Structure formats: C-alpha cells, structure tokens
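Agenda item 2: PRP complex prediction
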Amino acid sequence: MGNITITNHPLIQHKLTMLRDKNTGSKEFRSLVSEISMLMCYEATRDLTLKEVEIETPLAFVKAKVISGKKQAFIPILRAGLGMVEGLLALVPSARVGHIGIYRDPETLLPVEYYCKLPADLDDREVIVLDPMLATGGSAIEAITQIKKHNPKSIKFMGIIAAPEGLNALAKAHPDVDIFLAALDEKLNDHSYIIPGLGDAGDRIFGTK
Ligand code: PRP
Ligand code: URA
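Presented output:
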C-alpha cells in the first residue's frame, strides 16, 4: 500500500477550521484552499531529488543543492481541484498542469468523465492529482485510472478532507499511489457527503449555490 500522510500542522488545522465554517464566503474559501494546498505541497514534495551545483556567494564559492530537474505535473480534478493549483504552482512554477473533468452522478454516485487534457510528455513526469474532497473515492480512482494510461513516472494524490470510505477505496484501488490529506473525517452521510466535511467544495469555490 502507498503511504498515507495526514498533515496536521497548526497552520493547516487553523485554516481548515475556517474552510469548514459555513459562514466563510467564496472569496475567503478560495484563498484558504490555495493556502492549505501550498502548505501541503511542502510535505508532498519532500522526496524530490536534489543535485549539487557550485555557486559563488558574494564571499566564497560553495557547493549547494538544487532540485535535480525531475519534471512535475499537477492534475486537478474539475471543478474543485482547480482551487488547489495556484498554491502549488506558487512553489513549483515549472510544473505543467493537466485537467481532468469528472463529476459524481447525483443518482448513482458513480464518477462521470467529461474532459481530459494532459501534458504530452506525461511519461516523463511525476504527477500530483488534486481534489479537495475524497468522499466515496470514485472520482479520484477514475482520474488515476485514466492518468495511468499515460505511464507517468509516479502518481501522488493530494486532497484536503477524506472520509474513511474514500481513503480505503483509493488505497485499495491504487496501492502504488501515496496519499496526502489535511484531515480524515468521521464518515459519509446518506448522500455520500463527508461528515463533518465542508459541504460541496465546487459550489463553495465557485459560488454556484
Ligand atoms: C466533488 C469533489 C470530488 C468528488 C468527490 O466533485 O470535488 O471530485 O465530489 O466525491 P467521490 O469521492 O464520492 O467521487 P463533484 O462531483 O461535486 O463535481 P464538481 O466539482 O464538478 O461539482
Ligand atoms: N463532494 C464534495 O464536494 N463534498 C462532499 O462532502 C462529498 C463530495
């Protein structure tokens, strides 16, 4: 099974509480999603490989480390994953961005794919799939199944809140994928919404309800 990391840094916990609050409006919600994603990026990129270069400070020559050029791709699951992209790009501006559009059918709760545009050289890249909500896990599992067809070097999943049901399903379906979360909540309700969760992430980011 892949590694599961729940990053409960105080800054993330504080921002997550504000994100969950139903009185938080879309503008602040978007900023919080972006900030939490940026903080989580620190953990998700911990294993990037480094190489040594020689540079000159104003006082001396020194051998120092830089990231060794492994290429990254961030792939948000539309819609809500879009809210996470900016925070990650702020730290890794050279990453390419792919998009995969999937919604959950309200009746069957099964994932429906409607869009997919990925970087052409995905087989040369390490991928981080982004979606703030991991509920039944159906959307993330389907997205990763599609992405694997392009043979990326590795795949990680970064979410903000997961239900135990979704986390177990994703870990079982894709045991080679490392999973990064900010919180593991209690359960799903009868409509497969995460409890306590934060409601519908897409609607809250884009103000559609
Ligand atoms: C939400 C969320 C995930 C999915 C999680 O998207 O952003 O993609 O639900 O649920 P699952 O784990 O049970 O698949 P939604 O289906 O509401 O689509 P939207 O972002 O287009 O509104
Ligand atoms: N999608 C969401 O946006 N929120 C949930 O709680 C479950 C699925």
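Discussion summary: DSSP finds six helices and 15 strands in the chain.
Owner for follow-up: CH.
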